[in-house]
Amino acid sequence: MSDTTTAENTQEPRLITETGVDRRIADIIEPVLVPMGYQLVRVRLSSQNGATLQIMAERLDGTMTVQDCEAISTAISPVLDVEDPVDREYHLEVSSPGIDRPMVRKSDFSRWTGHLIKCETSILVDNRKRFRGKIVSADDEGFTIERDQPAYGEEPRVVIPFTALAEGRLILTDDLIRDALTADKKAKAAQAANENFEDEDSPIN
């Protein structure tokens, strides 16, 4: 897995955005999340338990704790109450993207190079719209996957432009779980080191 710096992730736009009421909710809460140091991954209003508003978000380093979820919920609830984008009662659910996460930013593909993904495109790419395979590379224009089950006559590798991407998600594997846990541990260690450094710089009263 390749590293992606915090600077590269700052204010990075999403490739995949919502429509309808989900888009309106995203437009309402994203300006609240960004100054707090979070980036929005996905908004989805479903009929689960009557109505559930699911907000997926994460820190710029990819981590997300229960405390982070609580902080986001506390911050966006008053704003949603004022704007009132949902015309019925709903349950607010704030979560991390999970290990088998949606892929919504260019940096997601660089960060998770070497792992399996399933994705769908909005237009035909190499005569199909659905793909499954390992991410072998990514650049500013798109990403390349190595298909795990290419059909007869198909090239084993295909380049998918980001402009054609409609949906993408990592596939849960033992390797992905291992790398995700390792990345999370490193990010939390870096956070702790930074907090200790700031404490040392604080004036002594």
From TrEMBL:
Cited InterPro entries: Ribosome_maturation_RimP, RimP_C, RimP_C_sf, RimP_N, RimP_N_sf
Compartments (UniProt record): Cytoplasm
Chief localisation class: cytoplasm
This protein's UniProt keywords: Cytoplasm, Ribosome biogenesis
Keyword Methyltransferase recorded: no
Residue stretches making up the Ribosome maturation factor RimP N-terminal domain: 28-100
UniProt-listed Pfam families: DUF150_C (PF17384), RimP_N (PF02576)
Domain called Ribosome maturation factor RimP C-terminal: residue spans: 103-173
Signal peptide boundaries: none
UniProt key word Cytoplasm: yes
Function recorded in the entry: Required for maturation of 30S ribosomal subunits.
Record family assignment: Belongs to the RimP family.
Name of this protein: Ribosome maturation factor RimP
Organism whose genome encodes this protein: Rhizobium herbae
Taxonomy of the source species: Bacteria, Pseudomonadati, Pseudomonadota, Alphaproteobacteria, Hyphomicrobiales
Gene (UniProt): rimP
